[in-house]
């Protein structure tokens, strides 16, 4: 699509002023990492929160789980609202409610109030991120759309890269509450910029009819390649989330480092996810299943090497080094399947975006919390076992996806 035609589309079919087009694109990308910030900024503070609130580590880890569940559930339903009532106003209100919820979480002394505010944060971030994923489907098509979608996991990964790094210093200088004050300021600031420079992108509102919406959901959920693609997204990101939930305790309790060190380690592992996204973008024209099979085989190799190494060298360098390679592979798989899932149903981009994000993060929340309980945050060996469970599931799903692709002869997956 030529630049002039894109500009015309925005001017005629959206509420974005033509001179704000570039800023609105940047804002859309800036809002994609919001979920990563909301999840990861206080990771170095998890041990400190447990001590200050006089609760167990698993109770504090549950603040991540309730966010992921609400984030996932909200996206299951928000897509139809975005397609019927628009992206802009829904997202704008959500940003300011997110900021308020963050402020309450920063000032309360009740763990249960923090749980509730995390639910509110999850719902509002779900609305914002689903709307911004649909933003690009609204405005672009063809190779230009694929190029933007290929940047999603790369841009999104800036949250997991930057957030724990910032959070480590906030924890050391001001304590865990500073992380939630930071989120409040971030949400309010982005909300103001969105109000000033963005606008509605939905080309045509679709009347909200329950029967029609249910049929769309049914069509998507009975499309096996789409469902298996979402499953791959969930398994890939669960590898990262299991590490996020357990690594702070391994680093700060087992290996006896401080919160700043946790932040630096999270920065490195977040960068690994970005590297995987860049490699994925660079191999976009390579055969789909061949490159994913090679990637998964490399992940399995590094996980087995990690388990062997941890018997003799259970230290920070080995932990972060092997986790880095596993996360590169996870980012690679995630980026490939995100592009596929988001381009599957362009006529219902809001619902597809919401369903993709919702089911992915519901899966991530269930898998990460269950595996964190099955293999507690004790040492690097347990983290390696967590990775092993997930990569075995990836191998099974990848096999099923390949068989499904061969049966339906889908050219997009060839």
From TrEMBL:
SUPFAM superfamilies: MFS general substrate transporter (SSF103473)
A single GO cellular-component term on record: plasma membrane
Domain Major facilitator superfamily (MFS) profile intervals: 24-409
GO biological process entries: xenobiotic detoxification by transmembrane export across the plasma membrane
Record keywords, A-Z: Membrane, Transmembrane, Transmembrane helix, Transport
Gene3D superfamilies: Multidrug resistance protein D
Molecular functions per Gene Ontology: sodium:proton antiporter activity
Membrane topology of the entry: Multi-pass membrane protein
InterPro entries the UniProt entry points to: MFS, MFS_dom, MFS_trans_sf
Regions that span the bilayer: 26-46, 58-78, 90-109, 115-136, 148-166, 178-199, 220-240, 260-280, 292-313, 319-337, 349-372, 384-401
Cellular compartments annotated: Membrane
Broad class of the protein's primary localization: membrane
PANTHER family found in the cross-reference section: MAJOR FACILITATOR SUPERFAMILY (PTHR23502), POLYAMINE TRANSPORTER 2-RELATED (PTHR23502:SF132)
Protein name, as recorded: MFS transporter
Taxonomic classification: Bacteria, Pseudomonadati, Bacteroidota, Chitinophagia, Chitinophagales
């Amino acid at each position: 699509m030529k630049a002039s035609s894109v500009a015309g589309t925005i001017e005629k079919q959206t509420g974005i002023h033509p001179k704000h087009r570039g800023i609105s694109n940047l804002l859309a990308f800036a809002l994609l990492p919001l979920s990563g910030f909301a999840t990861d900024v206080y990771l170095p503070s998890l041990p400190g929160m447990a001590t200050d609130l006089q609760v167990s580590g698993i109770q504090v880890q549950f603040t991540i789980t309730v966010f992921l569940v609400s984030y996932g559930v909200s996206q299951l339903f928000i897509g139809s609202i975005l397609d019927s009532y628009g992206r802009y106003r829904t997202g704008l209100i959500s940003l300011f409610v997110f900021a308020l919820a963050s402020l309450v979480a920063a000032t309360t002394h009740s763990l249960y109030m923090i749980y509730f505010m995390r639910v509110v944060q999850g719902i509002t971030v779900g609305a914002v991120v689903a709307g911004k994923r649909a933003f690009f489907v609204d405005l672009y098509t063809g190779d230009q759309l694929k190029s933007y979608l290929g940047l999603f996991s790369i841009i999104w990964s800036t949250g997991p890269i930057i957030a724990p790094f910032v959070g480590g210093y906030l924890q050391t200088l001001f304590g865990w509450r500073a992380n939630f004050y930071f989120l409040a300021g971030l949400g309010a600031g982005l909300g103001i910029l969105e109000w000033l420079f963005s606008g509605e992108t939905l080309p045509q509102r679709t009347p909200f009819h329950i029967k029609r919406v249910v049929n769309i959901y049914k069509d998507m959920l009975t499309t096996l390649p789409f469902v298996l693609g979402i499953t791959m997204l969930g398994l890939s990101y669960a590898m990262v989330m299991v590490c996020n939930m357990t690594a702070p305790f391994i680093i700060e309790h087992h290996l006896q480092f401080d919160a700043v060190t946790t932040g630096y380690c999270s920065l490195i592992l977040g960068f690994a996810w970005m590297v995987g996204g860049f490699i994925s973008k660079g191999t976009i024209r390579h055969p789909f299943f061949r490159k994913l099979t090679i990637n998964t085989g490399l992940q399995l190799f590094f996980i087995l090497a990690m388990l062997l190494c941890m018997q003799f060298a259970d230290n920070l360098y080995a932990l972060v080094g092997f986790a880095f390679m596993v996360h590169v592979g996870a980012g690679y798989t995630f980026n490939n399947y995100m592009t596929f899932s988001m381009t599957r149903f362009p006529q219902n981009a809001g619902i597809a975006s919401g369903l993709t994000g919702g089911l992915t993060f519901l899966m991530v929340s269930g898998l990460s919390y269950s595996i964190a309980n099955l293999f507690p945050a004790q040492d690097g060996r347990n983290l390696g076992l967590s990775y092993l469970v997930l990569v075995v599931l990836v191998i099974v799903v990848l096999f099923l996806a390949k068989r499904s692709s061969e049966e339906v002869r889908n050219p997009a997956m060839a």
